[in-house]
Structures are given as C-alpha cells and as structure tokens.
C-alpha cells in the first residue's frame, strides 16, 4: 500500500467518525431541547434499525400471494379475487388488534404513572415534580405529554391537561388523576392517598379485564377453528386423492357450494365474533 493510499484511508476514516459524531451530537441536542431532560444513548443494534422498513409491510397483503397460489393451483381467477377482497377485511382486523394492544399498554402505563407519582410524593417531591418524573418514566401521557408536563412545570392548568389526555384510548384513568389533583388543590387533601386509591381501583379493573380475557380464550379458539374448517376440508380432500379446487371452481354445483359455503362461513364468523366481543365488553 502506497503512502497516498494510506493517507486516503486515514482521511476517509476520520471523516466518517466526525460525521457520525456530528449526527449523534445533533440528535442529542434536538432531544435535549425537545424534552428538557437527559438523553440516553442509542444502544440499538444496527439490524434493529434496518427492521423499520420491514415493519411497515402490512401482513394483510399476504392474502394476494396466497390467492395467486390457489388461482394457479386451481386454474381459476376466483381465488385471486377472493384474496384481493380479503386484504381490507384482514387489515381492519389486524389494526383493531393492534389498537387493542396499544390501549391495554396505555392502561398499564397509567397505573404505573400513579404508582411512581405516589412514591415521589411520599419521598418529599412537589406535585408538579412528581408528575414530571412519573410522566417521563412511564410514557403514559402519550401525545399530550408535552402539554401536561409544561403545565406541571410552569404552573398551568394540570387537571385540564390531564382530562384532555384522558381522551386517548386506554388513558381514561388520567381523568381520575385530574380529579385527585383538583380535590387536593381545592381542599388540601392528601394527593398521595388519593393517587394510591386510584391506582388500586385501576389495577383491580385491569385484573378483572385480564381474568375475562383468559375466560374467553376458549371462545376465541372456537372462532379460529371455525375459520380454519374450510382449509381443513380442502386438505382432507387432497389427502383422499380428490381435486376439490377443480370441483369447486370448474363446475356449476361446485360454484354454488362455494358461494353458499362462503356466505355461511362469513355469517358464522361474524356471529361468533360478535358474541365474544359482547362478552368481553368491547362491542362497538
């Protein structure tokens, strides 16, 4: 390796280090100015950062290749059309499940917020500082975190901001925290005691929901089995040496059976899901 090449490699390495350091410094400065607190270093592995584009891929689009495979196997365009129709339906179901998980996570974060705030108050912190510490530690305030923390820091209307933040799914417990804050300010009652009682009530409600979810697990299993029955029937037909797709897709009787069976399957799934959702208290 020549001297010029060695100098070029050293300069390139130095430039890369300076660029990475500059980007990291800019990132830290932006986060410090945005939140007013300390910034943790980004300790994620590189492959976790590269997963972001993959996470954006919607799983419901897998219905299209599945429908295309069945269309080629059965030599008909009907499975491809069915896969295209299933994309928005499955997407809606997946988004509903994702929203449910987000709601449950937010509810757990609100309970943790109450516990941390009560602990900070008993340790001698002021209410505003206790709310600041609990909000940053748990992330229960969501999109309204900046407004609530600003109100707590600069003497704003904290109960109003908490009630506004309670409008997000799963954050309904913040309305109780706003009531405790308002009563403590107006009457001088102990805020830590009220937050403790609120935490106990929210935790009992969460345990009741978890118990109900566990009891409904069998019903959801029935819904899943009902959804898989057509695929199991087709697999049994292939195992017996028949060609069920050709019969269903290329004969008048098969097309009639496919239409009637699809309608009955859709009605059965809707009915069973409606019953389970009504039992879980999440019926819209």
Automatic annotation (TrEMBL):
Residues 118-235 form the Type II secretion system protein GspF domain. It comes from the Bacteria. This is Type II secretion system protein GspF domain-containing protein. GO terms for cellular component: plasma membrane. InterPro entries: T2SS_GspF_dom. Keywords: Cell membrane, Membrane, Transmembrane, Transmembrane helix. It is a multi-pass membrane protein. The chain crosses the membrane at residues 66-91, 216-240, 252-272. It is found in: Cell membrane. Pfam families: T2SSF (PF00482).
């Amino acid at each position: 390796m020549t001297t010029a090449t060695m100098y070029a490699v050293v300069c390139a390495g130095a430039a890369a280090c300076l660029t990475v350091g500059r980007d990291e410094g800019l990132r830290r400065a932006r986060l410090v100015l945005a939140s007013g607190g300390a910034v943790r270093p980004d300790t994620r592995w590189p492959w976790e950062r590269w997963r972001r584009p993959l996470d954006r891929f919607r799983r419901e689009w897998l219905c299209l290749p599945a429908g295309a495979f069945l269309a080629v196997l059965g030599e008909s365009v009907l499975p491809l059309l069915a896969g295209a129709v299933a994309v928005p339906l499955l997407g809606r179901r997946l988004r509903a499940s994702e929203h449910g998980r987000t709601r449950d996570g937010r509810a757990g974060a609100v309970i943790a917020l109450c516990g941390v705030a009560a602990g900070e108050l008993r340790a001698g912190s002021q209410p505003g500082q206790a709310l600041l510490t609990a909000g940053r530690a748990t992330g229960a305030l969501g999109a309204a975190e900046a407004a609530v923390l600003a109100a707590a820091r600069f003497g704003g209307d904290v109960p109003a901001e908490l009630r506004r933040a309670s409008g997000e799914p799963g954050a309904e417990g913040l309305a109780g925290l706003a009531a405790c804050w308002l009563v403590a300010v107006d009457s001088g009652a102990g805020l830590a005691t009220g937050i403790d009682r609120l935490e106990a009530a929210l935790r009992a409600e969460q345990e009741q929901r978890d118990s109900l979810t566990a009891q409904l697990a069998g019903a959801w299993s029935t819904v899943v089995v009902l959804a898989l029955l057509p695929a199991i029937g087709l697999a049994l037909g292939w195992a017996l040496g028949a060609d069920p797709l050709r019969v269903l897709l290329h004969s008048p009787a098969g097309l009639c059976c496919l239409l009637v069976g699809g309608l009955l399957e859709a009605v059965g799934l809707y009915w069973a899901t409606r019953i389970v959702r009504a039992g879980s208290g999440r019926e819209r």
